[in-house]
Specification:
The complex is a heterodimer of chains A (about 375) and B (about 200).
Chain A lengths: L16 E5 L2 E2 L5 E2 L2 E8 L9 E5 L19 E2 L4 E2 L4 E5 L31 H14 L5 E7 L1 H12 L4 E7 L7 H15 L16 H15 L2 H7 L18 H12 L5 H13 L16 E7 L7 H13 L4 E6 L12 H14 L2
Chain B lengths: L2 H9 L5 E5 L5 H10 L2 E6 L2 H9 L4 E3 L2 H4 L8 E7 L8 H11 E9 L4 H10 L21 H11 L1 E9 L10 H4 L2 E8 L4
Parallel strand pairs in B: 1-2, 1-4, 2-3, 4-5
Antiparallel strand pairs in B: 5-7, 6-7
Classes of the chains: A alpha/beta (about 375), B alpha/beta (about 200).
Chain lengths: ~375, ~200
């Protein structure tokens, strides 16, 4: 069928590439394999191989960072802050994810059925070890920077801690050294929403239809925690969807309609993958001994927080900065004023872009 | 490079680790990196300053000067610079004590508001000096500073004033009656502990 899209107006969303390797020793002690990572790249690796930037995604996204449906399309491209004329941008779907990388929904090679709960627990450190194989494969010995927000920020921290000699800069956005009990609690509510859906079937839902209702509820929890009181006020206030009369628990308010529509978008995410990834985030912890071990000429840091982010509050970013100060590591910290809560990293393009552009230029 | 920055670049040794409190757009730290291969770290409250520092390759923490020092280990830096910022901090004595803990040396550059003109004007008109032509009610809250007051505070805190430099309004070095003529004073301080 001929495309009806006018040329030049819309870029095609390109398909992800895949890289598979045999086995990966996990931080749990187990060795797991084969492992596939889905990834995308933009720009080209230069002759000196010193212009590669690794992008790490958050819980709700994947490798598709640029392009029409890319979560950071505003920041990636020719002349944009992550300038594809200058940098080789690599973005990979995490180990344990469900967008082409090996995760609980991948087929176990012997059985030919999804791993489901036979999938081993994976940590942020394991995700980074898998990415390191990909970076090796792409011929990159030292990354100019690892950039990520939220779960992606944890990966950036982990990269700097595990491979300080292979990273010139780490940009850690709206993230933390460890989840607080509040963050774990919200994740637990979301997990319980998934697991209490009868269609979850103890994780073995393959062939029976996914626990979509549970996932939808999990997404609602996520959506509320990622926004802010002020942004909800501005977008919806107490406006009604219809007459405003009680309609037997249909959506009366616009904010209810918004949550319901967001929830519906999430049902393509694999439920078990959601459980594994939220656990990896809850378990993430960089012990104090990791940072003093950093090299004198190791990575420089850029830590960014958003004023209205109450899920990953600025105080957690300042804690990262305190850790870096104690280790005498060169660091930059910026607190971007925003009403968008945790979602600000997907919205505040101009302020983030200016900081990231400068940070990348200042690294060598 | 401004005259004061020139003096600071001159005072700071090759390869020093420098903490610049109230670093603005990072001009001094960038100049120090070029001229002295110094490794710099800045602190500034302004978001715009943070972005300008990053563009120069200068690391900078967004925050108050008052909060910039805690968290660093003792003697983490060779030089801690307070250029045109000590007069705006909330707790001057605490910042100075922290600065001599974190830095082996502390270099303070301050407006010198004790020129003969300032003294005469106050005596004759009763009007307080307005440094840089900024009226007392305008601009950020700031203290009126002079070398004799700084010396007295350092004496009280057990901080040694190792060196003083005086600059005229045009940035020329002054030797004759400097405390009556200087517009800016640069003082090198060191804690007793570092001798």
């Amino acid at each position: 069928m001929p495309s009806l899209r006018p040329e030049g107006l819309l870029k095609e969303q390109k398909a992800s590439a895949h890289f598979t390797f045999d086995d990966l020793p996990l931080s749990s002690g187990k060795t797991f394999g084969p492992v596939t990572l889905a990834y995308e790249t933009w720009g080209a690796l230069n002759a000196a191989k010193d212009n590669a930037v690794l992008l790490a995604h958050d819980l709700f996204h994947d490798a598709r960072a640029a392009g029409p449906s890319g979560w950071w399309d505003a920041l990636i491209g020719p002349g944009k802050p992550l300038d594809t004329d200058r940098y080789f941008i690599v973005s990979s779907n995490v180990l344990g994810g469900c967008s082409g990388s090996t995760g609980p929904s991948s087929l176990e090679p012997l059985r030919g059925a999804p791993y489901a709960l036979d999938f081993p627990p994976v940590s942020v450190a394991d995700m980074v070890q898998a990415q390191r194989r990909l970076v090796d494969r792409l011929g990159i010995s030292r990354l100019r920077a690892v950039i990520g927000a939220s779960l992606g920020g944890m990966q950036a921290l982990q990269w700097a801690a595990t491979f300080p000699e292979r990273v010139a800069g780490a940009a850690v956005i709206a993230s933390t050294l460890k989840h607080s009990p509040q963050q774990i609690a919200f994740h637990e509510v979301a997990r319980q929403a998934v697991m209490s859906d009868p269609r979850w079937r103890g994780g073995w839902y393959d062939g029976h239809g996914a626990p979509e209702d549970g996932l939808a509820l999990a997404r609602m929890v996520g959506e509320v925690t990622r926004t802010s009181a002020r942004s909800l006020e501005e977008r919806f206030s107490r406006r009604f969807l219809g007459s405003g009369l009680f309609n037997k628990f249909g959506a009366d308010f616009q904010v209810e309609g918004f949550l319901r529509s967001k929830a519906g978008e999430f049902t393509s995410f694999d439920a078990n993958s959601f459980l594994y990834l939220t656990k990896a985030m809850d378990q993430f912890y960089l012990p104090e001994t990791q940072f003093p071990a950093l090299l004198e000429d190791g990575p420089r840091f850029l830590v960014i927080a958003f004023t209205s982010d109450w899920l990953y509050p600025p105080e957690q970013s300042r804690e990262i900065v305190r850790r870096l100060k104690a280790a005498r590591i060169e660091a930059s910290y910026a607190e971007i004023p925003s009403d968008h809560g945790h979602d600000a990293f997907l919205v505040e393009h101009e302020a983030q872009g200016r900081l990231l552009r400068g940070f990348l230029e200042g690294l060598s | 490079v401004s005259a004061v920055d020139g003096v600071l670049v001159d005072l700071i040794p090759e390869g020093a680790r420098v903490l610049d409190l109230g670093c603005g757009g990072g001009e001094l730290l960038a100049a120090l990196a070029r001229a002295k291969k110094a490794r710099g770290q800045g602190v500034d409250i302004s978001a715009d300053a943070v972005a300008r520092c990053l563009e120069k390759g200068v690391s900078v923490l967004q925050g108050d000067v008052d909060e910039g020092l805690p968290g660093y280990p003792d003697a983490a830096f060779d030089d801690v610079v307070l250029k045109d910022s000590l007069q705006e901090v909330k707790a001057v004595a605490r910042v100075l004590k922290e600065a001599v803990r974190v830095g082996k040396r502390v270099i303070v550059a301050l407006p010198h508001i004790a020129r003969w003109r300032d003294r005469l004007r106050f005596l004759l008109t009763g009007r307080v000096p307005s440094p840089g032509g900024v009226a007392w009610h305008a601009g950020p809250p700031r203290r009126l500073t002079g070398i004799d007051d700084l010396r007295a505070l350092c004496r009280d805190l057990g901080i040694e004033v190792a060196e003083e430099r005086f600059l005229s309004l045009r940035g020329a070095a002054l030797r004759w009656l400097p405390s009556l003529r200087a517009a800016t004073v640069v003082a090198v301080l060191s804690g007793a502990r570092h001798g």
